[in-house]
């Protein structure tokens, strides 16, 4: 899918389904927060939520007192939803409207978090560009937290094919420059009650 095709798809998803009508919606991103806390620098460094969309994770990250909080998403509609929800607090967030497979520089961060973007990258070239951007972005000693559908998770989401992973196969995508230091599984319940298996990988930047 081209960049314009991807952008149009996700603008349509967020404009028609809203913040709470998407399958990945969580009222409380508990596991993501637990993993972030486990690797966060003592001085509360810089964190980016890649594909954060309208997720409430950004609200919780502001509560944790990170030096810099950034959210990257291809959908302007999703980012505007999150900004409106945060109100005045939105000024404390760096908002990046971009396709993660095409942007070349987003600065440097201690933590890169992604819940449910990477598994939409079904083309090897897109995954390679994603991994290369992560290597340029995450500082040595920093961490990459990636969540995708697990081996027994859905094969499609939001009318798109996805790739499914276990910790080992996920590590093979990020083996150059990152080492797997932890993993976790999660059964996510969608807003309409179906269950989806996710796998989380935690990587340290070498």
Automatic annotation (TrEMBL):
Alphabetized SUPFAM superfamilies for the sequence: S-adenosyl-L-methionine-dependent methyltransferases (SSF53335)
GO MF: 2-polyprenyl-6-hydroxyphenol methylase activity; S-adenosylmethionine-dependent methyltransferase activity
The EC number(s) this enzyme carries: 2.1.1.222
Asked whether the UniProt record includes Methyltransferase among its keywords, one would answer yes
The protein's matches in InterPro entries, at most eight in alphabetical order, are given as: Methyltransf_11 (IPR013216), SAM-dependent_MTases_sf (IPR029063)
* Domain (Methyltransferase type) ranges: 49-146
The Gene Ontology biological process annotation of the record reads:
methylation
Task: Specify the superkingdom.
Answer: Bacteria
* UniProt keywords, alphabetically: Methyltransferase, Transferase, Ubiquinone
Q: Which Pfam families match?
A: Methyltransf_11
Give start-end ranges for the coiled-coil region(s).
Answer: none
Keyword Transferase: yes or no? yes
Q: What is this protein called?
A: Ubiquinone biosynthesis O-methyltransferase
Species per Swiss-Prot/TrEMBL record = Tautonia plasticadhaerens
